[in-house]
Amino acid sequence: MARYVVGRAADLPPGSRRIVTAGSRSIGVFNIRGRFYALRNRCPHQGAPLCLGKIKGTTLPGRPYEYLYGREDEIIQCPWHGWEFEIATGRTHFNPHKMRAKTFEVTVGRAGEQDVILETFPVTTEDGLVILHA
Q1: 53-56 contact pairs (CB < 8 A, 24+)
Q2: Distance separating alpha carbons of residues 26 and 101, to the nearest angstrom
Q3: pLDDT at 118
Q4: Tens digits of per-residue pLDDT, 13-28?
Q5: For the whole prediction, is pTM greater than 0.85?
Q6: What mean pLDDT is reported for the chain?
Q7: Antiparallel, parallel or unpaired: β 123-126 and 129-132
Q8: Is the dihedral of CA 22, 79, 31, 70 positive or negative?
Q9: FRET pair for 74, CA 20 to 30 Å: which of 21, 35, 101, 106?
Q10: Which of 60, 59, 54, 21 is nearest to 38 (CA)?
Q11: What DSSP character marks residue 8?
């Protein structure tokens, strides 16, 4: 799995998002109350740019005729048809077992920190001489 640097965590404050290209895929990275999540920028319904959708909450289970609103900033709404998905899991409330947006793992590292792989070679000493084995 390749690594892609999205940017500095400080430049992506809570409530913000950034859409990046990772290989051939468009992926939205979201900061939800200090935790980072990533979704493929494609609604599984008809391929809309899902990560451009409105970030909101949703109605919660309640008693008959009681409407509770919650989970503010945890739901993204598809800009084309209004389908709603949990940003953290990609699941929809409509049919959580059959319809889901693709998610990706996000971590926070230090700015400019990347895997640096140096090719190394063995070195030995023999009779006071340093020998490189390349």
Answers
A1: 53/77, 53/78, 53/79, 54/79, 55/15, 55/17, 55/30, 55/87, 56/84
A2: 13
A3: 43
A4: 999 999 989 889 899 9
A5: no
A6: 82
A7: antiparallel
A8: negative
A9: 21
A10: 21
A11: -
- Sorted by sequence, the CB contacts under 8 Å of residue 58 that are 6+ apart come out as 69, 70, 71, 74, 75, 84, 93
Residue 84 has pLDDT above 50, yes or no: yes
- DSSP notation for 13-66: -TT-EEEEEETTEEEEEEEETTEEEEEESS-TTT---GGGSEEEEEEE--STT-
pLDDT at 83 over 60: yes
**What does the block give as tokens for 24?**
């051939």
The C-alpha atoms of residue 43 and residue 83 are separated, in whole angstroms, by 8
| Residue 132 confidence (pLDDT) above 70 | no
Residue with tokens 């919650």: 70
102: Cβ contacts below 8 Å, ≥ 6 apart: 39, 40, 42, 44, 90
CB 64 within 8 A of CB 79: no
